[in-house]
Known about the structure:
Elements: E1 7-13, E2 46-50, H1 58-62, E3 65-67, E4 87-91, E5 95-98, E6 104-108, E7 114-118, H2 127-130, E8 149-156, E9 162-165, H3 172-179, E10 197-203, E11 206-212, H4 227-230, E12 239-245, H5 255-273, H6 280-283, E13 293-298, H7 303-318, E14 323-325, H8 334-351, E15 378-384, E16 388-394, H9 396-404, H10 410-423, H11 425-431, E17 439-442, E18 449-452, H12 482-508
Parallel strand pairs: 1-3, 2-4, 9-11, 9-12, 12-13, 13-14, 16-17
Antiparallel strand pairs: 1-8, 2-7, 5-6, 5-8, 10-11, 15-16, 17-18
Amino acid sequence: MPSFIDRVVLHVAGGDGGDGCTSIHREKFKPLAGPDGGDGGHGGDVVLVTDSQVTTLLSYHRSPHRSAGKGTPGMGNWRRGVDGDNLRLPVPEGTVVKDRDGNVLADLVEPGATFVAAAGGTGGRGNFSLASSKRRAPGFHLLGEPGERRDVVLELKTIADVALVGYPSAGKSSLIAAMSAARPKIADYPFTTLVPNLGVVEAGETRYTVADVPGLIPGASEGRGLGLEFLRHIERCAVIVHVLDCASLDASRDPLADLDTIEAELAAYSAQLGQAENDPAHTGRVPLMERPRVVVLNKVDDPDGAAMAELVRADVAARGLPVFEVSALARTGLRPLSFALAALVEQARRDAPAVLEPAREIIRPASVGRRGKEVIATVHRIHYPGEGEVFQVRGDKPERWVRQTDFTNNEAVGYLADRLATAGVETELVKAGAHAGDSVLIGEVEGGVLFTWEPTVTAGAELLGARGTDVRVEDYTPRRTNVERRRQYHASMDAKEAARQELRAEAAEGLWTDASSWDAED
Length: 522
């Protein structure tokens, strides 16, 4: 199992909201003292928060499904349900949150930065909060909303001041081990480093971090080798250091060709990032191809390496790039290099462009009497499988109201009809050409509610019957009174006694006999 993971798909689910409660308060001498059903608790949120102690996404690679706590239902005596616990997921600094389509949702760079990956559902209202001058004792409650469920992609982009880039086996791991306390795996074969390594370097009063990026090869920007897996770790570095192998055993390679190849791959990757990622005002960083570069001619402790470094030093310097001859193995030339990098890092920190904060939205409510009526729903005619042409209603509020409705309670259905009519949904249906008896769908094709539309008469006191009923809803079972219960009970007892008398009469006439009297031989 790998110990370093820098990209995972996380399946998150906010907690469901608790249902409201339908209850009537009872006390001595007041058997019907009014509604006292409490609201349901809200579901918890799934929150991503940056943590400096976390360096990998490994835990989410092993357990990608995470969900927050659910809210508990409301209770009688005006008791509200308990809110579900929020689930806080620590992620490394530099984590980018994207959706399935690759759109950036959040860039968690600062310590303690948070992002709500999945919001919890709202708790349903109890019948106490639903009471009004028209509905003094509602016999229904609202259901809790389900929590948000979605998939997010977490990508880790290492936050370091200096990035070491170069061909495999160029000596990057040896160099970071010689300059810092990092101890990466070092061996004499290509692609020894499979994960980025971080080291902290102190040069005088300056402290900076160095990232050892796994070896790049031609075509890395197109996905060859480990290119696309780790090129993202270069995006946030302030200084790029090219580590060139001056003692390579491959006769087809030379340090200048290696330098040109890696630069071409960086340019191709920078073009793939798009303008938004290369805009200093947006990212607060200098564009990738404009950042300071340093060339390190490594392995000069080898005679052939020293000779090659002597040959290419002037050509590299002619390109305007600082050149340092070092030996990570012999630890020579490291001090000048570390102080030179410290100076470049300090300069980059001073020159870093300020990130422009997004302009704050100023809300200015319209004057009273001049506010236009808000359209909360849109109506379109669509083809519904098995039904033909139907009118589809889409809108946050109508779809939320449908999710909150208990369709087993007729009074709750009537309350939903009142809400839709008052909000103007029926007006939009009329504008779209709907008539009484047409099929209407609220929500998506899958999971929406389909019904036959009849223009609604808003409920008043004269339309409300017993608790849990609504005279506008035809298919309800009337609530029985105590007198009706007694009458039905006595009728049932009389029917049972009549059946017994009939059985006794048949037994007396010999139409059937008791089985216990039969002869065993028969």
